[in-house]
Every structure is written in structure tokens, then in C-alpha cells.
From TrEMBL:
Residues 252-265 have a biased composition (Basic residues). Residues 233-285 are annotated as: Disordered. This is Knr4/Smi1-like domain-containing protein. InterPro entries: Knr4/Smi1-like_dom, Knr4/Smi1-like_sf, TPGS2. Residues 41-194 form the Knr4/Smi1-like domain.
Length: 285
């Protein structure tokens, strides 16, 4: 790493590692205090030791990531009434913190329910081609990539595991606070690009859930990612993207008074095709 520790070399290294997102953030209105934490790379022997300990083969792209830097932390703030407010956070746990998903110590008492109790019954298989959700028991091995600031957890998941055998294939899933799983990507590289693209905004992972992020998080997304800030990335039943549309006939209903019907004059009450009474009286003999 000595060849990139000089100012110009390391700055270029950060640009490549962050895909240039630091310059993008610094150019956004109100963004301040963009910080990237510099870390040394992980030694290859540490990677091998980790794989043996957890019986999981790290994907090659994640290995290359840790051989470049031991984790990733990039934070930024926004100016609110002349005061900095922490907002964006992009985190990939260090290798030492890439640990199996564990439950809180409050649930470690005897006879208390565990996460594995959620898998006592077989869940019905999805019929629309969606991947099978991970399990909390021995059928899956779940490793925490990002704690998401307490709003859930992004996990590296190995499904269809067998005891005493090294798990091979992994995916990236999001576990929300209600302990429901949501698929994010098939590879670490794809997830890394998602994280960079969403600028580390609060609750951005909830864009991949049926209910979306909170209203406050949506407001921040509308400010810094207005083109893709809607919570549902799919299309409406007509096959068109979901965008904000203004229908004047509905938005301004009741604002315009309907025209009043014209009152008929007394001469028109008898109808226009009748014969005057005076003419009728003159015809009598």
C-alpha cells in the first residue's frame, strides 16, 4: 500500500474505490463533511482463517474487496439551519465484524424463544419465481454486512447449507426490523453498486420492500435523488412508470363553479309552437 499512500496516489485510489461518489456528494447543495475512513487491506492468511472458522467460502469479489481495504465507511452530513446534521452512511463491516447473525443478549435466557423458532414450520414455496427466503436455523448461514444504523441488517446469506460442509454460493439479503427477508442482489459487487447509487441515504434498503421507507426518509430521497425517490420501483397496471402526475380535473375539482342554467322568460312558458289566444277568439262566429 506504500505506492498509494502519497497524496495524489491515495486520492486516486479513493476515487476508484468509491466510484467517484465523494466528488458527486461534494457537489450536491447543502452536503458537507464528507468523510471516508482509510483502512489497511486484509492479509490473505486472515481470509483463509476466517473461511475455515465459519465454514463459508467468501465470494471472489468480496475477497478482492477485503484484500483492498478492511471494510468500508463513508459518511456525510447536510446543513440544516446552519448546523451539520449526519445523514448519509455507507458501511461494509470489517472482516473481524463479518460475524453470524446473532440475537440480542436479552433473548439468551433459558426457555426463551430464539430466531430458529421462526422456522419450525415449512413456508409455502413462492410461485412467481421469487427466490426462497433464508432460514434462521442450520439450513442457512447468515453473516452481517451492514447494521444499517439499527433500521435492519444487510446480510451475506448462504442458503441450502449442510452441516460440516463448507458453504459456497452466497447472496445479499435485507432483514427488516420485523424479521422479514427481502432479496437485494446475487453478488457483493451488485450490492456495492446499489449502496453507492443510493448515496447511503437513510433506509434506502426499504426501497426493495413492499412498503418502502418512512415519510421522513422519502423526503431526504426526494431532495438528493429526485429521479428515483419513489418507493415502488415497479410500474403501474397500465405498464407505465409510477411518476407524480397532475390531473387538473381531479386536483381542481370544486374550484370552478358550474354554469347556472338560464331562466326561461314568461313568454316562452307556453311553448314556441302554439297559436296566440287573440287569434283564436277572432275565428269564432
Amino acid at each position: 500500500m506504500e505506492d498509494i499512500r502519497d497524496i495524489k496516489g491515495f486520492k486516486g485510489f479513493v476515487e476508484r474505490l468509491t466510484l467517484g461518489i465523494t466528488r458527486v456528494l461534494e457537489g450536491l447543495p447543502g452536503v458537507m463533511d464528507v468523510r471516508f475512513v482509510e483502512r489497511e487491506p486484509v492479509e490473505r492468511r486472515c481470509l483463509m482463517s476466517w473461511e475455515q472458522k465459519h465454514e463459508c467460502a467468501l465470494p471472489e469479489d468480496l475477497k478482492d474487496f477485503y484484500l483492498t481495504t478492511d471494510g468500508f465507511t463513508l459518511t456525510w452530513s447536510t446543513k440544516l439551519e446552519s448546523q451539520p446534521v449526519p445523514l448519509g452512511s455507507m458501511v461494509i463491516n470489517r472482516l473481524a465484524k463479518l460475524l453470524p447473525l446473532s440475537q440480542s443478549a436479552i433473548f439468551s435466557l433459558p426457555n426463551m424463544p430464539t430466531l430458529a423458532d421462526l422456522d419450525t414450520q415449512e413456508e409455502p414455496q413462492e410461485s412467481d419465481g421469487a427466490p426462497e427466503v433464508p432460514h434462521f436455523d442450520e439450513r442457512s448461514r447468515i453473516l452481517e454486512l451492514d447494521p444499517c444504523g439499527g433500521n435492519g441488517k444487510v446480510c451475506l446469506v448462504y442458503r441450502n447449507c449442510t452441516q460440516d460442509q463448507e458453504a459456497q454460493d452466497s447472496e445479499v439479503w435485507f432483514l427488516d426490523r420485523a424479521l422479514y427477508w427481502h432479496y437485494l442482489s446475487s453478488s457483493f459487487t451488485a450490492y456495492y453498486r446499489l449502496m453507492i447509487t443510493h448515496l447511503g441515504l437513510p433506509e434506502w434498503q426499504y426501497n426493495f420492500t413492499p412498503y418502502g421507507p418512512s415519510p421522513q426518509a422519502k423526503q431526504w430521497a426526494c431532495l438528493y435523488r429526485p429521479l428515483t425517490s419513489h418507493s415502488d420501483p415497479h410500474v403501474d397496471p397500465n405498464g407505465e412508470p409510477i411518476l407524480n402526475r397532475l390531473d387538473p380535473s381531479k386536483a381542481f375539482r370544486g374550484k370552478v363553479k358550474p354554469p347556472q342554467p338560464k331562466k326561461k322568460s314568461p313568454a316562452q312558458t307556453g311553448g314556441g309552437g302554439g297559436i296566440p289566444k287573440a287569434r283564436l277568439s277572432g275565428t269564432r262566429r
